[in-house]
Amino acid sequence: MFISLAINPTTYIVIFLLLGVVLKSKRWKRLCLTLSALLFLLFSNGALYQWIAEQWYKEYDRPLPERKQYTYGIVLGGYSYWDWKRSRPEFSEIADRLLEGIRLYKHGRYPTVYCYKTSIYYAHEFYALGIQTGHSRGC
């Protein structure tokens, strides 16, 4: 409970707003109210949030060299989980790492795919796709 309050920007906006109302000194009162207004504008600005989000996800600027062959392709797990209620796999928003690994395999970039820390339920799906998998954890 305390941690969720401590990381919430609204907490700091309210604290500085209350300090601005309670404090006697004009200088500190003005500083707290200004800081409260600036924090409000910073954390409620959708355009600023969108710009920061775009800066966070940059396009990878060093693609793989053309026609280079690799010994193994390693696909990191975490892109799926088993839904026990429906008895089927579910994929998360980062499933593109699996799809990109399969695409590179199908284009002949590597002969074997190692899936690191993924579910054993997907081994038969890899074999059904004609993908030679390694003996890593999972498939």
Key features of this structure:
two-stranded parallel ribbon, 47% helix, 139 residues, two-stranded antiparallel ribbon, 13% strand, disordered C terminus, alpha+beta, 6 helices
Short overview:
The protein has 139 residues and is α+β, with helices and mostly antiparallel strands.
Protein described:
The protein has 139 residues and is an alpha+beta fold. The protein is built from six helices and four strands; from the N terminus they run ααααβββαβα. The chain has helices at 2-6, 9-22, 26-43, 46-56, 96-106, 123-128; strands at residues 72-76, 80-83, 88-91, 112-116. Strands 1-4 form a two-stranded parallel ribbon. It has a two-stranded antiparallel ribbon with strand order 2-3. Helix 2 packs antiparallel against helix 3. The longest helix is centred in the first third of the chain and has 18 residues, at 26-43. Residues 135-139 have low confidence and may be disordered.
List the helices and strands and how they pair.
Layout lengths: L1 H5 L2 H14 L3 H18 L2 H11 L15 E5 L3 E4 L4 E4 L4 H11 L5 E5 L6 H6 L11
Helix pairs in contact: 2-3
